[in-house]
Amino acid sequence: DALPIYNYLDMKLGSGAAKLPQIIGLTASVGVGKSKNVKETKNYICTLCAILDAHVISTVRENKEDLERIVFKPQKYIREVGKRQKDLFFEIISRMMTQTEAMAKSVYPTLESLSNIQNRAVGTQKYEQWIVDTQKKCRLIQMENKEEESLICRTLFTYTEHLRKYNDALMINDDARTKDAIAYLEEFFRNVKNGGYDKTEKSLTENFEAKQSELNMVSDDDLNENPKLDDLTGILDDEYRQNPQTRTLLFVKTRALVTALKNWIEESDTLKHLKPDILIGRSKRDQSTGMTLPSQKGVLDSFKSSADSKMLIATSVADEGIDIAQCNLVLLYEYVGNVIKMIQVRGRGRAKDSKCILVTSKPDQAEKERVNIYHEDMMNNALEELQELDENKFLNMITTLQLAEKKTRDIQKLSTKRKAEGGNKKLLCGRCKSVACFTDDIRTIQKSHHAVFDKTFEKRYRTKPHTRPQSFLGITKKSKLSCKECLHDWGITANYLTLQDIPLIKIDSFVVEDIETHEQNHFRKWVDVNFTMKEFDIAEVNENPQAHFQ
Predict the structure, then answer these.
(1) Which helix (H) or strand (E) covers residue 446, if one does?
(2) Which of 150, 261, 313, 396 sits in a 20 to 30 Å window from 451, CA-based?
(3) 141 Cβ partners below 8 Å, 6+ apart?
(4) pLDDT of residue 49
(5) What is the per-residue pLDDT for 543?
(6) How far apart are CA 26 and CA 374, in angstroms?
(7) pLDDT band, residue 544 (cuts 50/70/90)
(8) Close Cβ partners of 287 (under 8 Å, ≥ 6 residues apart)
(9) For residue 408, how many other CB atoms are within 10 A of its CB?
(10) What is the distance in angstroms between the CA of the first residue and the CA of the last residue of the chain?
(11) Measured distance CA(348)–CA(341) in Å, rounded
(12) Percentage of the chain modeled with pLDDT above 70
């Protein structure tokens, strides 16, 4: 959030004489933005310094050799590997996805017009983006017949969610074993059966089950083995033969791939001695919950101190701020970002003679990493040239940029339309469009939780015990909250002060409808909503307890 630093700059450039805070900022890399050469990179870095009000850029210049004897920089390698020559799993699932898309179009013929994302190939991040964008637009479909609107929105949500899972499975199959992709789908369809399991879900489940035996035959075929895993086995086997004390950080893109590779290593006769552990983020993804902070800390402490586990498989949560002095091998498995990410991830290898190896079967990924290496040199050259400037000249450049930026923001403030305030609105289920609650009944708790104080709301949802009940700042999670009609995830119930089972909702699960105009909007975050909410007041609840909770 850039708001605090903009407030700081307004204080500095305003007429007041407020005493400004003094800040030291530390970073492994300032990056290059969209720069194509050293001149553009210098402008980018100066702009960054202006935003941060940085008057000095300080790096180690005089004692580089001494630093390199103490802080080891891993050697960077790019290992391009092969892919399956023929991928029968991909062919089968692709046909099933085409069939599922056709089913969705039979319900809503103009499905393709909902999203502007074109040229989407299945099994890619681009296809995932199309699904996310299409689902968002599906939520906002409006019809005169509200019953038909509800049915179509719910059905399209189901079709696109199944397409998302098939797309995930294709990406798992590309990077891991076919059996791992099948296991991922089997778990998904088990969860579908244990949910609402309506007519559409039943039909889609039957389609998958009809192909299961064929998919399993593909998985069991030795010719279907993933050559990328053979290369990864070879890299790890060589490293541990040379140094049995090697400690490896293996970075991957998704949590599903973390699970798949952990299972593969544990089942590999060559690699199972590594006894891999995992490190993933805290936030919830789909129906899976992330790791708590204590769990993350426990895994890191164990990896640092125990000789038992020799590998940690991680997502981007381990990119920054994790210091494992013993780590001497960083593997980036189809894991490429910008130059900042490259430098941060490479820096996880702290031990002497460390290596950082990108393993990829995609030529564009390998090329992107080579560009990152070039950008790092460009960034370092730009920094050196800026540090050679006269101090006053550098400060004048920073002040000029700050004044220009403030002028632009002041103009934007005048032209920005104010958010709509007041006016009661309806929240509709983001999946089936059934009425959930009204915005007048929402209260904010501790500025971060959003509770519905309406006794009739409980008639519209159902609950089940939370698998990981926790207490934080006086709020105790109790149950998971879902739509009574379609079981769409709405949030949780919790205890707070003397109140029991308060429903705490998440705005991403709903569509907001204006009662007067019937205009509908979808918001991912509470900070973006177009309505106001009152703060929680226990006195208000005590005045009319029958209308709220006891």
Answers:
(1) none
(2) 150
(3) 108, 149, 152, 153, 156
(4) 87
(5) 73
(6) 23
(7) low
(8) 191, 489
(9) 10
(10) 37
(11) 11
(12) 89
